[in-house]
Design brief:
alpha+beta; 2 strands
């Protein structure tokens, strides 16, 4: 079963139409140029949080003024385009997205020999 519907990301198009350079946007929102380049290359909505999305819009609007396009400011929804009939190449019922906890690095637990509780002094304190 293929997924139906897509949220297209329009950052590349918006930046091109307003002559906004990668370096300008990166400096304004304090991210690396490679991050902005990655966002521009996304065909579909990238995984960014709400605050970053709002920050991108505010920065684009400020750069519209700087670059001489004060009447070409955007709204949040201008960054995306919903395509309800577009077919996607994944099964939505089989898709597994790692939760935030799954992406965190796990810290290996100490073995009982390495544990602070395994020293003779600690064992005496615990027994007492």
């Amino acid at each position: 079963m293929k997924a139906k519907g897509a949220i297209r990301w329009r950052l590349k198009r918006i930046m091109s139409e307003r002559r906004i350079k990668v370096v300008q946007l990166a400096e304004l929102i304090k991210v690396s140029e490679s991050t902005v380049t990655t966002w521009r290359a996304c065909e579909y909505m990238p995984e960014i949080n709400e605050k970053r999305w709002i920050q991108i819009v505010a920065a684009i609007n400020k750069l519209c003024d700087v670059n001489g396009f004060p009447k070409r400011k955007i709204d949040l929804w201008d960054l995306i385009e919903f395509c309800p009939d577009e077919q996607r190449d994944f099964d939505p019922l089989e898709y597994q997205y790692a939760s935030g906890d799954a992406r965190k690095k796990s810290v290996p637990k100490k073995s009982s020999q390495e544990s602070d509780d395994s020293t003779p002094e600690k064992k005496e304190q615990i027994a007492a």
